[in-house]
Structure formats: C-alpha cells, structure tokens
Amino acid sequence: MKYVIISFMSFMFTLAGFSAEIVIDMLNKRDDGQRMVYSKDVANIAVGDTIKWVPKDGGHNVEFIAGPSGFELPPKSYINKEVAIKFDIPGIYLYVCSPHSIMGMIGLVVVGDDISNKNSISGVDIGGKGSRKLKALLSNL
Fold first, then answer.
1. Rounded to whole angstroms, how far apart are CA atoms 45 and 22?
2. Please, what is the end-to-end C-alpha distance for the chain in angstroms?
3. For the chain, which residues make up each domain, given as ranges?
C-alpha cells in the first residue's frame, strides 16, 4: 500500500508540471456559418499553456493588440504562417486577424480564469463588426 501511495503522489506531481497545447484554426468560414473567424472565439487556458494558431484557409494572421499588465505584445504573425505562444501571465488577451478584424475576426484568451483586466480590454476600439463582437464576447465572461 505504501508504494501505491508513493506512486500516486509522483503521478500527481507530474501532472502539476503538465502544460497543454491548444490548437485554434484560422478560417474563412466556420461550421456555424460565421465568416472570417478563428475556430474558437474564447480560449480558456491555464497558466503555462500554449496556443498554436494554424492557417486552414488563406489570408489570415494573429496580431495581439491588448493583454494584462506585464505582457509584452509579440510581433504580429506573418500571413498564412503557423504561430505558437505560451501564456505565463494570468488575464485576458485580445488578438485579431490584421486584414479581417473589422469583419469580426477577433479572439480572446483567458488565462487562469483571471478577468481582472476586462475593463481595459473593453476600451479597445477595433472598429466595425470587430468592436461589436468584442463587446459581446466580454459580456459573456
């Protein structure tokens, strides 16, 4: 029995160091009919997780335009290029597809269930359908 408990505790400590990779596709059209979108509007992840954005259709990228205090905005990705980012700071992150943000191609990443910077994210003006979508997404957090 002693060895079972030790094995279980080792397993739990291994899980504590585990981080996940989430994949978000960049799409011209999603199954629900929305056009110029990411496959997930909001990604809820744990601190230390990585998100990989994969181009499935042409003409898209990832550009972060806001995040929590202490987050250094990475450079926007190249069009049609896969990009992966690890998130170590809790909070809400806002990203867009540079060419299609006013068409509503935006997304949020919520790290560690921390929404303390929601007000600063809500003040970002994307323009067009992007601003309306941002307001709707934030109201559901």
1. 8
2. 45
3. 19-139
CA distance 38 to 40: 5
Collapsing DSSP to helix, strand or coil, 104 comes out as: coil
Rounded CA gap, 133 and 26, in Å?
17
Domain at 19-139: CATH code: 2.60.40.420
* 17-43 pLDDT tens trace: 678 999 999 999 988 888 999 999 999
Mean pLDDT of the chain: 89
Is the distance from CB of 76 to CB of 103 less than 8 angstroms? no
> Which residue is it, tokens 């597809």?
97
DSSP codes of every residue in 28-51: EE-TTS-EEEES-SEEEE-TT-EE
The length of the chain is 141
Cβ atoms 43, 51 nearer than 8 A: yes
φ and ψ at residue 113, rounded to 5 degrees:
55, 20
CA-only gyration radius of the chain, Å: 17
Return the structure tokens found at 72: 């250094």
Q: pTM here? A: 0.86
